[in-house]
């Protein structure tokens, strides 16, 4: 499985650890930046990761900022992306199982290393359940293109 990773300056410090966790699980990871902890704008890196995931079918993304909130909101502006802000094993597992999320988001200032490793493992090892959830994901996708939830 291939993952793309991007952060802002507030998520940069944990990035090396995340890359190690992903490779230790046997997956490939492509670093989309930034290359330092200098101040950057998270929407730029969210877009870069979202576009990479869309262009590389079957791949996934990991986005990190201080809280995970801003970078997840930004990624979700890209049609076809379902970026999920997660805080633990349960949310990481169920966002794949029920929402077919393609980008895992979290905050460096919010979760610790053990939780991060657990979330990545849960996200990577959970398949989308489909069924009634596929209908809901289709409705979400319709909203991205100007549709409604009904």
UniProtKB/TrEMBL annotation:
Catalytic site: 65, 98
Keywords assigned by UniProt, alphabetized: Isomerase
SUPFAM superfamilies: Ribose/Galactose isomerase RpiB/AlsB (SSF89623)
Documented EC number(s): 5.3.1.6
Enzyme class: isomerase
Gene Ontology molecular function terms on file: ribose-5-phosphate isomerase activity
Record carries keyword DNA-binding: no
GO annotation terms (biological process): carbohydrate metabolic process
Binding-site positions, D-ribulose 5-phosphate: 8-9, 66-70, 99, 109, 132, 136
Signal peptide annotation: none
UniProt record similarity statement: Belongs to the LacAB/RpiB family.
Protein name according to UniProt: Ribose 5-phosphate isomerase B
Species annotation: Sulfurovum indicum
């Amino acid at each position: 499985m291939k993952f793309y990773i991007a952060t802002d300056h507030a998520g940069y410090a944990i990035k090396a650890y995340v890359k190690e966790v992903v490779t230790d699980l046997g997956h490939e990871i492509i670093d989309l930046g930034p290359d330092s902890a200098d101040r950057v704008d998270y929407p730029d890196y969210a877009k870069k990761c979202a576009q990479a995931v869309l262009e590389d079918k079957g791949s996934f993304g990991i986005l990190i900022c201080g809280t995970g909130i801003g970078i997840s909101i930004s990624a979700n502006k890209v049609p076809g992306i379902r970026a999920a802000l997660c805080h633990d094993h349960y949310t990481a597992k169920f966002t794949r199982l029920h929402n077919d999320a393609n980008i895992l988001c979290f905050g460096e200032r919010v979760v610790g290393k053990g939780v991060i490793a657990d979330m990545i493992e849960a996200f990577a090892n959970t398949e989308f359940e489909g069924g009634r959830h596929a209908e809901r994901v289709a409705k979400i996708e319709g909203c991205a293109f100007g549709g409604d939830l009904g």
